[in-house]
Amino acid sequence: MERSKMAEAESLETAAEHERILREIESTDTACIGPTLRSVYDGEEHGRFMEKLETRIRNHDREIEKMCNFHYQGFVDSITELLKVRGEAQKLKNQVTDTNRKLQHEGKELVIAMEELKQCRLQQRNISATVDKLMLCLPVLEMYSKLRDQMKTKRHYPALKTLEHLEHTYLPQVSHYRFCKVMVDNIPKLREEIKDVSMSDLKDFLESIRKHSDKIGETAMKQAQQQRNLDNIVLQQPRIGSKRKSKKDAYTIFDTEMESTSPKSEQDSGILDVEDEEDDEEVPGAQDLVDFSPVYRCLHIYSVLGARETFENYYRKQRRKQARLVLQPPSNMHETLDGYRKYFNQIVGFFVVEDHILHTTQGLVNRAYIDELWEMALSKTIAALRTHSSYCSDPNLVLDLKNLIVLFADTLQVYGFPVNQLFDMLLEIRDQYSETLLKKWAGIFRNILDSDNYSPIPVTSEEMYKKVVGQFPFQDTELEKQPFPKKFPFSEFVPKVYNQIKEFIYACLKFSEDLHLSSTEVDDMIRKSTNLLLTRTLSNSLQNVIKRKNIGLTELVQIIINTTHLEKSCKYLEEFITNITNVLPETVHTTKLYGTTTFKDARHAAEEEIYTNLNQKIDQFLQLADYDWMTGDLDNKASDYLVDLIAFLRSTFAVFTHLPGKVAQTACMSACKHLATSLMQLLLEAEVRQLTLGALQQFNLDVRECEQFARSGPVPGFQEDTLQLAFIDLRQLLDLFIQWDWSTYLADYGQPNCKYLRVNPVTALTLLEKMKDTSRKNNMFAQFRKNERDKQKLIDTVAKQLRGLISSHHS
Question: 609-621: per-residue pLDDT in tens?
Answer without folding.
Answer: 777 888 888 888 8
